[in-house]
């Protein structure tokens, strides 16, 4: 063990001597002392490492800065897109409103003999989406229970069944509890129209109590016969099928509603009308 330490010490001393000589030679060549060379030798790799770390830090900072700039740019683009989409929706709404107003002007309610109050649908009955809805007009606008609702094309929508100061509930023609005296426009055959859901005709209307001798054709128009509730000749629907009642005492007809109930946004309430 003693011999081992002696050899190790010798090796260390020789290495130190060689390093000293090398530093002296390098110092003479570059004009620096051995100590300067030693310090330079030790610090060079440290400086290289620090330089690399600095570059990485700068790159990371640039990445973060660029990322934040892209995030801000994306946020601005998303805001612009949202505004454009909103403008497009408003333009579509204005276009639909113009179409309805043109239809209303073409109808000329004054010449038809009745007064109208326009209203917008604000909610639908969650229990039965097409059975009834609420509008933004009420007694303050002259509405009352028992007034009928139509489209700008004189298509029957339903009947006001509940009214408040600034709202009213309209039950649509698709509800089977609503019955309307009607007639086939081309032939004059009379019957009663109600929602066809209970009879297995979901989304359709059912015209019952037609004469057994009546001749019914597809696309025949069915209109209101006129009553204290519905003005005469409002369009209810169009015949798409027909058959004989189970007892054989009368015929029935299945109608496609004239009003597209599911896509309604605006309706008109008939507040006054004259009967012929």
Average pLDDT rating: 79
Strand runs, count: 12
Category by helix and strand content:
alpha+beta
Question: What oligomeric state best describes the polypeptide chains here?
Answer: single chain
Would you state the CATH class of the domain at 116-273? Mainly Beta
Percentage of helical residues?
25-40%
What report would you give on this structure?
The protein has 276 residues and is α+β, with helices and mostly antiparallel strands. The N and C termini lie far apart (134 Å). The longest helix has 74 residues. The strands form 2 sheets. It has a 6-stranded antiparallel beta barrel. The model has no long low-confidence stretch (mean pLDDT 79). Helices cover 39% and strands 28% of the residues. The protein contains 3 helices and 12 strands, in the order αααββββββββββββ. The chain has a domain of 158 residues: Rod shape-determining protein MreC, domain 1 (Thrombin, subunit H), CATH 2.40.10.
Characterize this entry briefly.
The protein has 276 residues and is of the alpha+beta class. Helix content is 39%, strand content 28%.
